[in-house]
Amino acid sequence: MKTQQQISQWIKTYLADILEVEPEKVDENYEFERFGLNSSAAVSLVGDLEEWLGFELSPSLFFEFNTIAQVSTYLAEMAQEENALENVA
Which residues does the UniProt record annotate as the domain Carrier (predicted)? Predict the structure, then answer.
């Protein structure tokens, strides 16, 4: 199960690759608009993140949550729920 910190770091690294900067320069409290994340890049990011996390995500995820911190907190909670459901089944 992925933690909030692991998810945040994964997104920061992903965005750093796109922006061609060091991951440390990507502030998790900046709004996604500041990164210039267009809908095409957001869809790619969601697809890659789904694969890494192992569960399906909303294509509009990065438009519903404004920052990496918000998204990673939400996804960590989802990961916990997914893990709990797998343990019940």
Answer: 5-79
Q: How many domains does the chain have?
A: 1
Domain holding 60, by residue range, is 4-88
In CATH, what number is assigned to the domain containing residue 59? 1.10.1200.10
Q: What are phi and psi of 88, to 5 degrees?
A: -80, -40
- Give the global pTM: 0.89
Contact yes or no for 15/26 (Cβ under 8 A): yes
Mean pLDDT of the 39-62 span: 90
Q: Is 16 exposed, middle or buried (0-12, 13-18, 19+ CB in 10 A)?
A: middle
